[in-house]
């Protein structure tokens, strides 16, 4: 079990952690495949493909539909089409997971600095946060295209440590995917794995996070006693 008494800041994944965005992504993926006159897919299949960014999602969808590996040129040509359909479906079917709003309110009142670290393209992350009126809780939002590398690479988390002038023990990563846990381990920070999100059908516990939560609200029992919060001027 990690030590939580030095915790000052929390980084959250977005898709599958704060927001169930799979229905929007599924609608966009299905529309893209239909426009390409290819066999479609189910929402459940899309849920198993989420987690490594939009391009990998589309690569998995095309590979499934074609029943063979997709060529790089076709994938590149397909991405603008997928982005168009996702823009059209953004915020249409997504929902906040239970307890997210209440927990974010509580963590903000306790003085934690919070960030979103997602592999979703930045231009889609911001509107989604605003649509659910939770963007004000986060002083930093990093998309999959915000830096040179994305999760499971530790760069987004080490970037936060540098910008917020934090030691690794002061930052916690909360996510639903092994990419979140692997990034946290590589950055030397603690992590909480959520069981309800998108993790390719794998038990998040197999990635050995410092704690596992079935519900988002359970996060509070780990961080509520952490009284050392980041000073405003260090953010």
Automatic annotation (TrEMBL):
GO biological process, one term: carbohydrate metabolic process
Pathway: Organic acid metabolism; glycolate biosynthesis; glycolate from 2-phosphoglycolate: step 1/1
Cofactor(s) it depends on: Mg(2+)
GO cellular component: cytosol
Catalytic activity: 2-phosphoglycolate + H2O = glycolate + phosphate
Binding site for Mg(2+): 13, 15, 176
Entry annotated with the keyword Iron: no
Record Gene3D superfamilies: HAD superfamily/HAD-like (3.40.50.1000), Putative phosphatase, domain 2 (1.10.150.240)
CDD domains given in the database record: HAD_PGPase
Entry EC number(s): 3.1.3.18
List of catalytic residues: 13
Keywords: Carbohydrate metabolism, Hydrolase, Magnesium, Metal-binding
Keyword Aminoacyl-tRNA synthetase among record annotations: no
Molecular-function GO term, any one: phosphoglycolate phosphatase activity
Enzyme superclass (EC): hydrolase
Pfam families named among the record's database cross-references: HAD_2 (PF13419)
Family membership: Belongs to the HAD-like hydrolase superfamily. CbbY/CbbZ/Gph/YieH family.
Function: Specifically catalyzes the dephosphorylation of 2-phosphoglycolate. Is involved in the dissimilation of the intracellular 2-phosphoglycolate formed during the DNA repair of 3'-phosphoglycolate ends, a major class of DNA lesions induced by oxidative stress.
Protein name: Phosphoglycolate phosphatase
């Amino acid at each position: 079990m990690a030590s939580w008494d030095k915790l000052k800041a929390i980084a959250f994944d977005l898709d599958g952690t704060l927001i169930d965005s799979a229905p929007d992504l599924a609608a966009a993926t299905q529309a893209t495949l239909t426009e390409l006159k290819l066999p479609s897919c189910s929402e459940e299949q899309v849920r198993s493909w989420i987690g490594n960014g939009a391009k990998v999602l589309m690569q998995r969808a095309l590979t499934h539909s074609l029943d063979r590996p997709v060529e790089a040129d076709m994938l590149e040509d397909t991405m603008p089409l997928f982005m168009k359909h996702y823009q059209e479906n953004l915020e249409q079917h997504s929902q906040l997971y239970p307890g997210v709003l209440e927990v974010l309110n509580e963590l903000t009142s306790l003085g934690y600095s919070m960030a979103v670290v997602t592999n979703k393209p930045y231009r889609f992350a911001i509107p989604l946060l605003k649509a659910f009126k939770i963007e004000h809780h986060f002083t930093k939002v990093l998309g999959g295209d915000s830096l040179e590398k994305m999760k499971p690479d530790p760069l987004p988390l080490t970037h936060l440590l540098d910008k917020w002038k934090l030691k690794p023990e002061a930052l916690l990563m909360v996510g639903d995917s092994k990419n979140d846990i692997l990034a946290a381990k590589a950055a030397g920070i603690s992590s909480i794995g959520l069981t309800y999100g998108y993790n390719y059908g794998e038990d998040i516990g197999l990635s050995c996070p410092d704690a596992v939560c079935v519900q988002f609200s359970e996060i509070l029992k780990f961080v509520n006693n952490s009284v050392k919060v980041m000073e405003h001027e260090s953010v």
